[in-house]
């Protein structure tokens, strides 16, 4: 490993940060959430993101890692790439300017650095030449059930985070009847199951040994959906969408956001 | 960017490879950014970020334009919490004409920040009394 090869990895990280960050960089709600959301929640979100980045680095960083120290270093580097990319692009898009107070600028950049940081971490896999694929597959196998669940969580977080800031999530929840909600929930679970276990993706999870449909369904699909819902709840809470809202309405929002979240959980193995 | 960096010799090499200086630099910068952001956001959290909005409006410029007059103002939110949908209302009143009211809604004024806007009048605001103020806001 030389600085030269690391530089290539860094360049891919910047590419990933732009590619995965661009939808939210151009989302209006993200700019206002950056300064209006609770500071404590923003801090918690950044901490959570750093932890997820450490985990993602283990499975697929922009370089092969050998120790927790390296995973932490990679997570920090990806976060730094996310911050630089966010700040530069927000500046070009005139979403931050030097006339603003530093509090506003910091809030906007910090919030955008979450998707951009995750994108930086995924950049290598998506834009790279695909080296060390075997090693990655080996790690995913070694990590076992816990690793599977972590990847689902990361995938759910990324997709839920991409949708949750928009007003549409709430609007959809408001206009749905309970029957729509039930239908969307069933559709989410079905797709989650079909995506991961029935279609022949690369890196596809083979059903657990002796795994009947039912045990696979209980072990992975239902757990995956539960993770998707929990991640959705966390993201909605982070953005203050649940404050003062009745439980029934929160349930509706969860089902709505749980749909992209479960797709994210299902396809995480492909992206990571 | 040659492809012959076989995965085999990478793994067969020493288990503790040397960390390149660029990696230290990137990780170090990332750490500085992370700590910087945490510090600044944390500082806000303990310095009145939860004080509800208080918006004051200051008239910056009055000019004659085609079809009337334009009043530029600057609205400042002096508290820590952001205000959404801030309505700014301006009233021109004089002894010899009916009072004229103009309104505009500012989408957001972040905490301790200012936003600029303008109001249009048909009467000359300098001919009578001009009163510009914020009438209300919504929580974001």
UniProtKB/TrEMBL annotation, chain A:
Keywords for this protein: Membrane, Transmembrane, Transmembrane helix
Species for this entry: Microvirga makkahensis
Lineage: Bacteria, Pseudomonadati, Pseudomonadota, Alphaproteobacteria, Hyphomicrobiales
Origin superkingdom: Bacteria
Protein name: TIGR02587 family membrane protein
Residue intervals passing through the bilayer: 6-28, 40-60, 75-98, 143-161, 182-201, 213-239, 251-271
Xref: InterPro entries: CHP02587_IM, DUF2391
UniProtKB/TrEMBL annotation, chain B:
Keywords of this entry: Membrane, Transmembrane, Transmembrane helix
Listed transmembrane segments: 21-43
Domain of life: Bacteria
Protein name, entry field: TIGR02588 family protein
């Amino acid at each position: 490993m030389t600085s030269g090869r690391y530089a290539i990895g860094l360049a891919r990280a910047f590419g990933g940060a732009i590619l995965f960050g661009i939808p939210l960089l151009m989302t209006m709600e993200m700019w206002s959430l950056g300064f209006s959301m609770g500071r404590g929640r923003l801090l918690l979100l950044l901490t959570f993101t750093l932890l997820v980045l450490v985990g993602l680095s283990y499975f697929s960083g922009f370089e092969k890692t050998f120790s927790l120290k390296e995973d932490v270093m990679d997570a920090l580097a990806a976060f730094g790439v996310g911050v630089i990319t966010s700040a530069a692009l927000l500046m070009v898009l005139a979403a931050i300017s030097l006339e603003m107070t530093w509090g506003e600028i910091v809030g906007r950049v910090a919030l955008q650095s979450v998707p951009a940081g995750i994108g930086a971490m995924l950049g290598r896999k998506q834009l790279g030449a695909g080296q060390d694929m075997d090693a990655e597959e080996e790690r995913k196998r070694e990590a076992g059930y816990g690793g599977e669940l972590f990847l689902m969580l990361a995938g759910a977080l990324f997709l839920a985070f991409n949708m949750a800031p928009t007003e549409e999530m709430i609007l959809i929840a408001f206009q749905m009847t309970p029957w729509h909600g039930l239908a969307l929930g069933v559709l989410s679970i079905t797709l989650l199951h079909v995506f991961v276990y029935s279609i022949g993706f690369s890196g596809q999870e083979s059903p657990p040994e002796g795994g009947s449909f039912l045990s696979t369904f209980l072990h992975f699909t239902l757990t995956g959906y539960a993770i998707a819902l929990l991640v959705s709840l966390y993201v909605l809470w982070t953005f203050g969408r649940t404050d003062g809202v009745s439980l029934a309405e929160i349930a509706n929002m969860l089902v709505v956001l749980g749909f992209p979240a479960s797709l994210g959980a299902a396809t995480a193995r492909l992206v990571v | 960017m040659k492809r012959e960096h076989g995965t085999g010799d990478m793994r067969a090499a020493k288990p503790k490879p040397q960390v390149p200086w660029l990696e230290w630099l990137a990780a170090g910068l990332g750490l500085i950014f992370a700590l910087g952001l945490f510090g600044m956001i944390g500082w806000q959290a303990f310095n009145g970020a939860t004080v509800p909005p208080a918006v004051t409006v200051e008239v910056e410029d009055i000019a004659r334009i085609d079809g009337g007059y334009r009043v530029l103002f600057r609205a400042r939110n002096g508290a820590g919490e952001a205000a959404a949908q801030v309505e700014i209302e301006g009233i021109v009143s004089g002894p010899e004409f009916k009072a004229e009211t103009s309104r505009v809604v500012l989408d957001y004024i972040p905490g301790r920040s200012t936003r600029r806007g303008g109001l249009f009048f048909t009467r000359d605001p300098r001919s009578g009394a001009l009163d510009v103020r914020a009438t209300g806001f919504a929580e974001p």
